[in-house]
Each structure stands twice: as structure tokens, then as C-alpha cells.
Specification:
By secondary structure, the chain is α+β, with helices and mostly antiparallel strands. It has ten helices and ten strands. A hairpin with a 5-residue loop joins strand 7 and strand 8. Bound molecules: FE2/S2 (inorganic) cluster.
Length: about 300
């Protein structure tokens, strides 16, 4: 049997490297745990939070008016344009069209970056580490495409094409990390419980009306579901307790009044939901909080069922 002549340490490093390359998710997982990135993450996150106070501008960047994060839709423009430009480079006589596509893609990075930064500033630290590397990749890709445009304008078309190809490769790595962030780490997806799957059909008994404090949010359990319950006199509102943004405990949040309606503000990142029906008033959450219809029986028991 042939033995490797490499020392054990180098062999282990080489095996680890091969593992990372053959399974890109392992590399993304290492980035999640890369504490060395934390000073940069902290500094940038503080800057974004200072520059983007809660309000209509932040809500628009998070995608609150659209009912889902705006960033994934906006990144399609630069990635689509750049991919098309690199494909056009394979054919003769397409220099002008490729240049227009590259320039359009570069222009599209501004809204993509603004929405991405807004979402990124309200993530958990492991998500922010991956998000930082994702952003660095996309910024590098934009720089390479800018260089490509300059090279083409200066008549160095071959060099410009090489820069475009490199830019697309870097953008693809960035897109992979963006996918890891959204699909594996759940940034941008709703974290509220799947109420319709977890509660049975029909009305369910919750508790007696008098067992609930007045105008103070409390947590109650209904089977697998954690609920935020809020009583105002004889009116009871019930929402799923896990915030749709990243699963924060809503019953620990603050009651605020927005547009004349009682709302709950999440203790983690301040997402604000109308307590009567779970509508989003302020982000970063974009998904409505699942809510329940309630009724009080003649013997003072509260019953509820998921709102359709
Ligand atoms: S978990 Fe982020 S706002 Fe609720």
C-alpha cells in the first residue's frame, strides 16, 4: 500500500482544504464561525444603524410596502446583466451591447447594496459574518466590471472580457453565500410558526378571561404553539409569539400605538405589528404575524382559531 510522504499536519490541512472545496457549504459554515470578522461587522453594523433610523425610509429598504424583502428582487438586475454580458462576449460584434449590459448592472448595484445593508444590519452575528463576505464579493465583482468597462472604452477589449469573466466568477461566489444566508440561515424568510399546520381545525379553548392581566402582553401555550395574548377589557387579541423576522419573543415586546391601533414592538429588532391582526407596521419584518380570531364563551372562557 502506498503511504503519503507528507507530514501528518500538512496532510490534515490538505484534507481540510479539499473538503472545503468539494463542499462549499463547509466554507460558508466556517465563515459563520469566523470571529475574526467581528470588529468589522460591529463597526459597519453600528454605522448602518446610525445612518438608517427606524422609519419610512428603513421600512422601504426592508421591503415592508411589498410584503417581502426587496433585496432578493433587486440583485437580479446586476447578476442578470453581467451574466448576459459575459455570454455576449462569446460572439463577435456584441461589444456595444455587452458594454450597455455591464453599465446597467453596475447602476443596479446601488439599490441592491442599500437594501442589502439595511437587512444585514438587523441580523444575528453569525448571519452578519456570512453577509459581510457576501457583500465583499459583490463589491469586488462590481469593481471588476467597472474595470472591464474602462478597459473596453480604452480599446483593450480582450482584457475587458477577461475582467468581466473574473467579475462574474466572484459574483457567483457571492450569490452562493447569499443563498446560504437566506436558505440555510433563514435571513429574509418568515420565522413565525406555521400556525395552520400546527393547530387543529375549529375553535380551541385557551383560558379564562379573568386569568389574563389587562393591557399587558403575556405568553400562553396552545399545543405546540407559543402565543402572545393581549387583553383590553373584554377584547382579547392573539398573535403567534415568534416574531416573523427572526423568531424573537413578542410577548416580551413593548405595546405602542401606531396609526391609532395598539401594536407590539419586538424586543429584538423593533419590528412592529398591529396586535389585532398581525399586520406589519414597521420592519425589519416584512411578513404578517399569524393571528387568531377569538371569542368569549358565556362562562367566560376564551376560545380561538387561526385567522384564515
Ligand atoms: S426578531 Fe427581529 S424584529 Fe423580531
Amino acid at each position: 500500500m502506498r503511504q503519503s510522504l507528507l507530514p501528518a499536519g500538512r496532510r490534515a490541512r490538505r484534507t481540510r482544504k479539499a473538503g472545503l472545496l468539494s463542499r462549499p457549504s463547509a466554507l460558508a459554515e466556517r465563515i459563520e464561525r469566523a470571529h475574526a470578522l467581528d470588529p468589522v461587522v460591529q463597526g459597519l453594523s453600528d454605522t448602518v444603524v446610525r445612518a438608517l433610523p427606524a422609519g419610512p425610509r428603513a421600512d422601504a429598504l426592508h421591503g415592508v410596502p411589498f410584503g417581502q424583502p426587496a433585496h432578493p428582487a433587486l440583485v437580479r438586475l446586476p447578476l442578470g446583466c453581467w451574466t448576459s454580458a459575459v455570454l455576449l462576449d462569446l460572439f463577435r460584434g456584441t461589444e456595444r451591447a455587452a458594454g450597455v449590459l455591464i453599465a446597467t448592472g453596475i447602476a443596479g448595484t446601488a439599490p441592491a447594496a442599500a437594501t442589502g445593508l439595511a437587512d444585514w444590519s438587523a441580523l444575528h452575528r453569525d448571519q452578519q459574518r456570512v453577509g459581510l463576505v457576501h457583500a465583499v464579493c459583490q463589491a469586488s465583482a462590481a469593481t471588476l466590471f467597472l474595470g472591464s468597462l474602462a478597459a473596453r472604452a480604452g480599446g483593450r477589449t480582450r482584457y475587458g472580457r477577461a475582467l468581466s469573466a473574473a467579475g462574474l466568477a466572484v459574483a457567483t461566489i457571492g450569490a452562493y453565500l447569499g443563498g446560504h444566508l437566506a436558505l440555510r440561515l433563514g435571513a429574509g424568510t418568515s420565522h413565525a410558526e406555521q400556525v395552520s399546520h400546527l393547530s387543529g381545525l375549529g375553535w380551541h379553548d385557551l383560558c379564562g378571561l379573568r386569568e389574563l392581566p389587562d393591557r399587558r402582553p403575556v405568553r400562553r401555550q396552545l399545543g405546540y404553539l407559543s402565543l402572545l395574548v393581549y387583553r383590553q377589557g373584554s377584547e382579547v387579541s392573539v398573535l403567534s409569539d415568534r416574531c416573523s423576522h427572526l423568531g424573537g419573543p413578542l410577548h416580551q415586546g413593548r405595546i405602542v400605538v401606531e396609526r391609532g391601533a395598539a401594536c407590539i414592538a419586538c424586543p429584538w429588532h423593533g419590528s412592529t405589528f398591529v396586535i389585532a391582526d398581525g399586520a406589519v407596521v414597521h420592519g425589519p419584518a416584512t411578513a404578517r404575524q399569524p393571528s387568531f380570531e377569538t371569542r368569549v364563551t358565556s362562562d367566560g372562557r376564551i376560545e380561538l382559531r387561526p385567522r384564515p
